[in-house]
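Whiteboard transcription, Tuesday session. T.W. wrote the structure tokens on the left side:
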């Protein structure tokens, strides 16, 4: 049975990501919006696994290119078009959660076929670099817009 707990290094990476966003977005003067963003980030970090536990289907229909594309598009929409820190936290950390999982699989197996069976194995690293850059851009939009 799948658990909601993630490997400790995921928490470390997520915490560093969170601290960078807080430092650059709110500086040394966090507001109530900071707490709301942290709550959204916590939700985003666990929502994929919670959803997979709820639907209980193997392999997960949520671990694919279409889902990731929709989440990246939503990330840009939410961080540029809304003023909700909760939504921004959820979508940025959900996207980060998927990205960390893909990079972990890639470093372990040298492919992410379990996530992207429709893409040739030799293109997985290029895909991950592009998605990582999109994650960085979405984060920068949140910080500076």
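and on the right, the sequence the group agreed on:
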């Amino acid at each position: 049975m799948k658990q909601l707990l993630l490997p400790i290094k995921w928490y470390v990476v997520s915490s560093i990501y969170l601290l960078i966003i807080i430092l650059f977005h709110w500086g040394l003067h966090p507001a109530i919006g900071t707490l709301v963003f942290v709550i959204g980030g916590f939700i985003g970090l666990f929502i994929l696994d919670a959803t997979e536990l709820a639907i209980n289907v193997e392999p997960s229909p949520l671990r694919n290119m279409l889902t990731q594309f929709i989440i990246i598009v939503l990330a840009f929409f939410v961080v540029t078009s809304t003023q909700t820190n909760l939504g921004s936290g959820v979508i940025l950390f959900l996207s980060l959660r998927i990205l960390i999982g893909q990079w972990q699989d890639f470093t372990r197996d040298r492919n992410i076929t379990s996530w992207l069976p429709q893409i040739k194995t030799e293109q997985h690293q290029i895909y991950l670099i592009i998605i990582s850059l999109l994650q960085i851009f979405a984060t920068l939009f949140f910080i500076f817009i």
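Someone added at the bottom: The chain has a mean pLDDT of 92.
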